[in-house]
């Protein structure tokens, strides 16, 4: 009896418990081995489809076509991985790319393991699951890992893809909802907050940002990250006629004030009434619409106007006297250019955002989910989702 009690006190010396622990270990290892290798063996060929185009154009229904392909795992280059799409969004920049004159798309002849006619695949952002690792593809990625493309123009509107490890960033540990959109809007917000001001008043909380298109996805991440990382207050300017829920959502995310465009662009608008004399250091122009002169007017001395979106289509015009007497700067931000110039910066940005998501410091920004089922016409699904995005905002395709 005494021996038995002692064995329980010191399980490490207990051959019975040790054996059972080793057994559990072996079983778990065997199951993982079978899951990994058997899954790879079972799925020796997959049939994929992509939403593709050959000539640019804005008539998406005629420009986008489905291209089907097969990936035979035995014929995949040993240096490559096979990826199964989980989710890919439709962003404004994807549409500009298809229209032409913005971020040249790639021409693919290798969607599958047998050559296809040269096509460009729509989409720049998305999350994939690794389903096969080539024998010479290194040990960084394993079957089951969630990954996103490192560079733009990956062509993410496709149900399967092949890629080299160097082209991917691992995003394990966050939800598919978060990972599918981490690459562009949160990364844009994160880099803007770090690129132009490096000495935020984190202790005093007296720094401010004012932004137009203040209900966009980018703006929602600016609001959250500015508060969470640097204790910076954000004012969002939104276009008139929005329901109260839009303001409520922005305030819930952490915006200090939400102001309608008509109020913001009044001749006598005075931002100091909202900021209590705080330091408006950044004015973010995500739309290049008629609010730009008021954004500049709202900047404090030494402030910076950062333009990163052109959807409003107007010229960027403002009072030169303001720039002169307040020593204002005008800068532009383009994530694509930053990423091509410095891919490591992009990797670092995404890895930081993964950690921020994991700590729960920022919340998901909701969007509309569109579900793709194998065998459907993916190009048509995308075209319908583009039309729907005009009515109900950001659409993200989730693949079966
Ligand atoms: N430079 C970069 O690296 C970079 C990176 C990411 C995004 N962006 C740009 O940032 C902007 C926001 O992107 P997002 O994905 O967050 O978009 P989003 O969620 O779809 O939001 C679009 C925003 O633009 C506003 N808008 C649409 N048409 C407009 C017009 N004609 N005039 C004025 N405002 C208009 C919308 O206002 P309503 O709700 O009132 O329609 C909304 O606030 C886009 O222009 C995008 O191209 C640039």
From TrEMBL:
Q: Which InterPro entries match?
A: ADH-like_C, ER, GroES-like_sf, Mito_Enoyl-ACP_Reductase, NAD(P)-bd_dom_sf
Q: Which domain of life is it from?
A: Eukaryota
Return the SUPFAM superfamilies for the record: GroES-like, NAD(P)-binding Rossmann-fold domains
Ranges where the Enoyl reductase (ER) domain occurs? 62-383
What Enzyme Commission number(s) does the record list for this chain? 1.3.1.104
Q: Does the keyword Metal-binding apply?
A: no
Alphabetized CDD domains for the sequence: ETR (cd08290)
Pfam families membership: ADH_zinc_N
Q: Gene3D superfamilies annotated for this entry?
A: Medium-chain alcohol dehydrogenases, catalytic domain, NAD(P)-binding Rossmann-like Domain
- Give the enzyme class: oxidoreductase
Give the family per the record.
Belongs to the zinc-containing alcohol dehydrogenase family. Quinone oxidoreductase subfamily.
| The name this protein goes by in its record | enoyl-[acyl-carrier-protein] reductase
Organism whose genome encodes this protein: Lodderomyces elongisporus (strain ATCC 11503 / CBS 2605 / JCM 1781 / NBRC 1676 / NRRL YB-4239) (Yeast)
């Amino acid at each position: 009896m005494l021996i038995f009690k002692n064995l329980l006190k010191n399980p490490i010396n207990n051959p019975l418990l040790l054996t059972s622990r080793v057994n559990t270990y072996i079983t778990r290892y065997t199951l993982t081995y079978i899951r990994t290798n058997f899954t790879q063996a079972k799925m020796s060929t997959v049939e994929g489809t992509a939403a593709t185009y050959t000539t640019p154009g804005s008539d998406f229904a005629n420009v986008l076509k489905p291209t089907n392909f097969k990936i035979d795992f035995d014929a995949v280059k040993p240096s490559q991985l096979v990826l199964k799409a989980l989710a890919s969004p439709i962003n404004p920049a994807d549409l500009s790319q298809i229209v032409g004159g913005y971020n040249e798309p790639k021409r693919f002849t290798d969607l599958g393991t047998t050559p296809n006619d040269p096509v460009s695949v729509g989409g720049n952002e998305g999350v994939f699951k690794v389903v096969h690792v080539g024998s010479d593809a290194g040990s960084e990625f394993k079957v089951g890992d969630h990954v996103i493309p490192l560079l733009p123009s990956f062509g993410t509107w496709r149900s399967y893809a092949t890629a080299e490890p160097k082209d991917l960033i691992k995003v394990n540990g966050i939800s598919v909802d978060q990972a599918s959109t981490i690459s562009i809007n949160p990364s844009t917000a994160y880099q803007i907050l770090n690129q132009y001001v490096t000495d935020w008043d984190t202790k005093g909380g007296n720094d401010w940002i004012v932004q137009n298109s203040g209900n966009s996805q980018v703006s929602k991440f600016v609001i959250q990250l500015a508060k969470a990382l640097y204790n910076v207050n954000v004012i969002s300017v939104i276009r008139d006629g929005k329901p109260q829920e839009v303001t409520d959502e922005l305030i819930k995310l952490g915006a200090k004030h939400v102001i309608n465009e008509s109020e913001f662009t009044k001749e006598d608008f005075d931002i100091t009434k909202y900021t209590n004399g705080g330091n408006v250091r950044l004015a973010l122009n995500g739309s290049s619409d008629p609010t730009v002169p008021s954004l500049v007017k709202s900047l404090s001395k030494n402030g910076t106007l950062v333009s990163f979106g052109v959807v409003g289509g107007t010229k960027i015009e403002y009072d030169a006297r303001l720039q002169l007497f307040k020593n204002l700067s005008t800068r532009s931000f383009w994530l694509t250019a930053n990423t091509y110039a410095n891919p490591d910066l992009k990797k670092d940005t995404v890895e930081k955002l993964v950690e921020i998501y994991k700590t729960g410091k920022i919340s998901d920004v909701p969007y509309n989910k569109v579900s793709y089922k194998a065998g459907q016409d993916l190009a048509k699904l995308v075209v319908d989702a583009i039309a729907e995005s005009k009515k109900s905002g950001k659409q993200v395709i989730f693949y079966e």
